Amino acid sequence: MDSSVVDVWNAAAANPFVPTVGKDSQFTVGFLLVLIGISLGAIFTLGRSLLNVPLLGIPASLALAFGAVYMFCAVGVYV
Q: Which residues of 2-31 are buried (b: 16+ CB within 10 A; e: fewer)?
């Protein structure tokens, strides 16, 4: 095995990965993101205009997407 791979392995072992959102709070964060996404989506559908697409539509879709991934991870379905 190449010595540089061993060096990288040892350096990674000394500095473990710590996620921004911990395992205990993934369900809460995911649930809040899904609720925010549904709320913004509902507001967007009530008053559709070209101005509301970047203000409400895009944040709603991003909140739903990230919320769904966090909810999947929180219940044990890894993506």
A: eeeeeeeeeeeeeeeeeeeeeeeebeebbe
pTM for the whole structure = 0.75
Tens of pLDDT, residue by residue, the chain (79 residues): 557 888 888 888 888 888 898 889 999 999 999 999 999 999 999 988 888 889 999 999 999 999 999 999 898 887 6
In the block, residue with structure tokens 């709320």? 39
Angstrom CA distances, 14 to 5, 9, 73, stand at 14, 9, 26
Q: H or E stretch including 24?
A: none
Sign of CA dihedral 54, 36, 41, 76: positive
Q: Where are the domains of the chain?
A: 21-75
